[in-house]
Write a structure and sequence with these properties.
about 375 residues; Spore Coat Polysaccharide Biosynthesis Protein SpsA, Chain A; about 40% helix; alpha/beta
Length: about 375
């Protein structure tokens, strides 16, 4: 929950609390109508704060006292005092939790290996489109990743972990959900070679909010890949990824059916793969048109994405493929299954897509300010 939503909720709770306290201080008995109003109020708070253990317990304690009380018309003074204490405790815990809230609307989680060369661009680009928190897990890198990330860690933009072991991607995603679900309003899971591109005039958050508003049971939005090839580079070029690699597959290329997700982390049971999330009962993911997704892919057809697109720079250059992809592990499977055959299949350069270039100058300026480029 972000701070704006928290403050709005607090205001609503305090107004309702004034009504409750007025009734509790009256001499006459507490009516059945009041008891039901109280029950509904705490059920709502239990739902809103379902992941806040102490608040949930406080709400349940109040409900238990109401449900076991048989004399609804003439509640005793002791019960009144108990209810008053429970409400005070509930509000105390609510305000205590405010210490952990922040103004982050959108966060991204990622597990990386030897991506220090590319991470600053990935971070600065996504900051431009509205991502304000990054949860970066270093999986046995041998490059200077900690040195590169130090300024972002210091300023609080990056939460960083050293996270060794094979096949750790799903475990890392679980860790992010379990530990940071209340620190951002929305959470996305992308790889370091994936850049989310908003299409049209709306921002990423505006697009996402419009999709979420269509159905209260929507807890995630799936965004399709557009696979980018080597653009003819054999050697790893200097400069930005988003400037260098402009050639891509046609939208209906089979691999572009895969989606990555941005979700409401408080409604997640667990991520079952990099492309699929299991939610709490009655919640689900949709595509950018609001159609329900029950699997890890979305069939776009020849027109491609209309609102949100993930530029997937999978192959980059032949040199990069040889140094990084052939020698690295797999964050999800553990064992590396990449070979030159996969490079040939995925080195798609049939068409050009330059839409992301409108961000290139600003990304370079941010990187120059932090000393990453001259």
């Amino acid at each position: 929950m972000n701070r704006v939503a928290y403050e709005s909720l607090c205001e609503r709770i305090l107004k309702r609390t004034e009504v409750f306290m007025d009734v509790l201080t009256q001499e006459e008995g507490i009516s059945r109508e009041f008891q039901m109003d109280w029950k509904e109020f705490f059920l709502e708070m239990k739902y809103v704060f379902q992941n806040y253990k102490e608040l949930k317990n406080a709400a349940e304690n109040c409900l238990i006292r109401l449900l076991i009380e048989t004399d609804l018309i003439n509640m005793t003074a002791v019960l009144k005092d108990s209810l008053r204490v429970s409400l005070a405790h509930f509000l105390e815990m609510l305000f205590r939790e405010s210490q952990h809230l922040n103004e982050d609307e959108l966060g991204f989680g990622v597990i990386v290996q030897n991506e220090a060369r590319y991470l600053p661009e990935w971070i600065e680009y996504h900051k431009l489109i509205g991502v304000s928190r990054f949860f970066i897990y270093n999986n046995e890198s041998s490059d200077n990743i900690e040195e590169v990330l130090e300024p972002y860690i210091t300023e609080g933009t990056v939460t960083y972990y050293n996270w060794p072991g094979q096949a750790q991607q799903q475990i890392v995603y679980d860790h992010i959900i379990n530990n940071y679900q209340n620190e951002v309003r929305l959470m996305g899971f992308l790889d370091a070679d994936e850049f989310l591109l908003p299409l049209g005039e709306q921002s990423v958050l505006e697009i996402l909010d419009d999709i979420f508003k269509k159905d209260t049971h929507v807890a995630g939005v799936g965004m399709n890949w557009l696979l980018f090839g080597s653009s003819g580079f054999e050697k790893e070029p200097e400069g930005l990824v988003i400037r260098n690699f402009l050639r891509c597959s046609e939208p209906n290329f089979d691999k572009n059916k895969f989606v990555k997700l941005i979700c409401d982390p408080r409604q997640v049971l667990y991520p079952s793969s990099p492309h699929l999330i299991r939610y709490k009962e009655s919640y689900y993911s949709v595509n950018e048109d609001g159609d329900r997704l029950n699997t890890f892919y979305n069939n776009l057809g020849p027109e491609g994405c209309k609102k949100l697109q993930i530029n997937h720079y999978y192959t980059k250059s032949m040199e990069y493929w040889e140094k990084k992809k052939l020698k690295g592990g797999s964050a999800f499977y553990g064992k590396n299954t990449r070979n030159w055959g996969k490079f040939i299949v995925n080195d798609r350069n049939e068409m050009e897509d330059r839409r992301i270039l409108k961000y290139a100058d600003s990304v370079e300026s941010a990187l120059r300010e932090k000393g990453f480029i001259a």
